[in-house]
Amino acid sequence: MTGGTSGIGRATALALAKLGARVVISGRDEARGNQVVDQIRTAGGKADFLGADLRDEASARSLAARTRSLAGQVDILVNNAGIYPFGPTHETTEQDFDQVFSVNVKTPYFLVADLAPDMAKRGYGVIINVTTMVAEFGMAGMSLYGSSKAALVLLTKAWAAEYGPHGVRVNAVSPGPTRTEGSAPMGEDLEQLAAAAPAGRPGSADEIADAIAFLATDRSSFVHGAVLPVDGGRVAV
Ligand code: NAP
Fold this sequence. Notes:
This protein has helices spanning 7-18, 30-42, 57-71, 94-122, 143-163, 188-195, 205-216; strands at 22-27, 46-51, 76-79, 125-130, 168-175, 178-179, 203-204, 227-230. By secondary structure, the protein is an alpha/beta fold.
């Protein structure tokens, strides 16, 4: 689980631990990571934290290797860590561009490159990518973020084609506006963004985590290459 120290990732770590999974969470913030681990262990679950600043192939492969040596094998990979700076295209720097694509696309890509072959060899594995509703339609100010997650949407389908025949299910959850530490600075803008959807309100991290947990278990055993909108209905209307 990448990005287990906050928001959707933390809620997912708690949900998967509750289902009996041994959860390895990662992120840059060790203090927040250890808090989540303590919370899971106090509730009787199994969890560990691994520090990782995901920025390139080396950091992704290092996290994969450390997770493998800690847990033995990885059956479920949740590519949740992500950054979502918004702003006009003409104000975006090359550094912004590279940073967003490194965290949102490059490191999930190399985590899958590292972990999926072992899953395929064992004939079992689950990969879930966390995308976004703004990968599905154009929105001013979201060109960089939306395009990075649109790449992850396509990768979800490409990996389903590539690894699905070997027993590895690859799917995505596509959240709408969700209340988390990461989205808190958006303030009222989050409410406004959510108002356009049938549900008319932002989601909670737990509501997104429940969908990820569904895709992580065999209850979704016939679901491959799907992008599940959990967005209050926004992309449906
Ligand atoms: P959040 O509260 O900001 O949490 C982001 C997580 O990603 C943190 O655990 C953070 O860990 C980790 N992370 C960020 N950069 C990292 C890096 N360079 N290396 C390692 N870990 C890194 O965000 P959130 O709102 O829960 O979002 C989670 C995912 O859902 C993201 O992919 C986001 O794009 C997607 N999403 C969110 C919303 C929303 O409205 N909240 C809507 C649609 C999609 P550290 O800080 O410890 O490094």
